[in-house]
Amino acid sequence: MQLIDLRSDTVTLPTPSMRQAMFSAEVGDDVFGEDPTIKRLEEMAARRMGKEAALFVASGTMANIISQMIHCGRGDEMILGDQAHIFWYEQGGSAALGGIHPRTVKNQWDGTLAPEDIEAAIRPDNVHFPRTRLIVLENTHNRCDGSPIGPDYMEAVADLARRFDLKIHVDGARIFNAAIALGVDPTDLTRYADSVSFCLSKGLGAPAGSLICGSNAFITQARRVRKVLGGGMRQAGVLAAAGIVALTEMVDRLADDHDNAHALAVGLSRINGISIDYERIKTNIVYFGIIQKDLSPPQLCEKLNAAGVRVLPADSRRLRAVTHYPITKLDIEAALEAVAAVMG
Ligand SMILES: *Cc1c(COP(=O)(O)O)cnc(C)c1O
Fold first, then answer.
1. Does any ligand 1 atom lie closer than 6 A to the CB of residue 59?
2. Is the model's pLDDT at 1 over the cut of 80?
3. Between 20 and 30 A from 229 (CA), which of 25, 181, 268, 280?
4. Are β-strands 195-199 and 210-214 bridged in parallel, bridged antiparallel, or unpaired?
5. Beta-carbon neighbour count of residue 343 at 10 Å?
6. Is residue 8 part of a domain?
7. Residue from 83, 88, 89, 138 to probe ligand 1 pocket by mutation (most atoms less than 8 Å from CB)
8. Which range marks the domain in which residue 282 is found?
9. In this model, does residue 292 exceed pLDDT 90?
């Protein structure tokens, strides 16, 4: 029996052309600035995000902590959503490594923060208060049904940020999913951000790596912070080579993942005992609930696993399935049959 692994879009394997590019990559010592393949990837990433420069880093978590540490000094405050990946899944690194005070604002179901909530959270100048420096947005929003966040909203937050002299960081781990789902260019989503990070190792299928994009001055600082965090890599052009293939060959096909996620969500909505609002599913992440009280998400995961389908428990009532390369329409049909059989 072949497993259909929908736990995450991080389980993608490098494509044959990635392996070929890795094999033949021209490399050098990147801490000396001598890896031509990394430079090429960084230039390509900066161009795709509409920024002056970019930096190749080990992971999305590293991209986010570096960006936060540049925008905020110790004791400064950042405003972010209460469902943000940075808040949930990055070990509280903002506080632990950056000395940054996270101020959470409620995420709306579509991944946005209400501008009035952001404004209410901004601190006035007062000796008692930390100083607000940064607004963090996430696009697509992982814990909010993978929702893509559009240019109009970004512009509204940018107006607010400008009025209060705040910076904006976009955790764009899946920014290409957002752009494709909305039918816009990624730069339409990033032009309002002072920094943006995105992952090569999720739906784009590269084995490792993320990029931080921003102004030349910002990336110069980012290079320093990366080094102190232990992220200065040497001949990492072998990884960047896969990243270049990810950017050139794997972006447009994300639309297939979105179609498959939609089909999965619609199919799940027709299965007894499963609850899902499939109209909210716009990209590749599908959260769904269990109606029965006597079946917990870990229990359902275990049963599905035995039936050849892997998903993850998300919280006390919900599970998560993510579509990605090379999951096909047929896989989705088979997965739905398995869920229907398990739910009886
Ligand atoms: C996966 C993810 C990250 C972190 O990326 P890693 O490479 O796993 O460290 C950051 N933000 C979001 C929204 C993510 O989904």
1. yes
2. no
3. 25
4. antiparallel
5. 18
6. no
7. 89
8. 253-343
9. no
